[in-house]
Amino acid sequence: MKRNQGFTLIELIIVIVILGILAVTAAPRFLNFSGDARTSTLNGVKGALESAGALVYGKAIIAGQQNGNGCLTADGDVIVQPNGGCTAPATGVVNGYPAPTVNSIRAVAELVAAEWNVAVGTGDDAPAFGATANSVVVSPVGTVLSTDAADSCHVVYEQAVGGGVKPVITVHANGC
Hints:
Layout: H1 9-30, H2 33-63, E1 69-72, E2 78-79, E3 91-94, E4 97-98, H3 102-109, E5 116-120, E6 135-140, E7 154-158, E8 168-172
Antiparallel strand pairs: 1-2, 1-3, 3-4, 5-6, 6-7, 7-8
């Protein structure tokens, strides 16, 4: 009769070591927790900008300023500023939505400077991919703005182009 044998202890140890090496090298590629966390926070910023925009637009409708430029005061009232500009602590409003300025976006979405960089777009993917002349780029502190789609990790807020037209808010998270 033939006697069947299992694996020896040495063979089992070698297989376990090989699996351990594969796990250590492959796991970080599949478990990108920091990138997923950054992407989630960018989606949170997008949601905050959408919510803040809806609130500001509602206030602009009440004030009859949904089709032009105005100012959102610290009290939450939308008013027309005689000289066209808003004085502090008022926030700019364009077509009923927050203006694409650093102060306006920081104020309405409550983006703290210690956590978020906010830069005005100058057009043609500057200072970051997806930016236009009437946009603002929001990125987490510690990330570098990139004009390449593959390295981007930011949110772009594009100004409302007319009364009743929502601003376009896009998350670019390929490089997070």
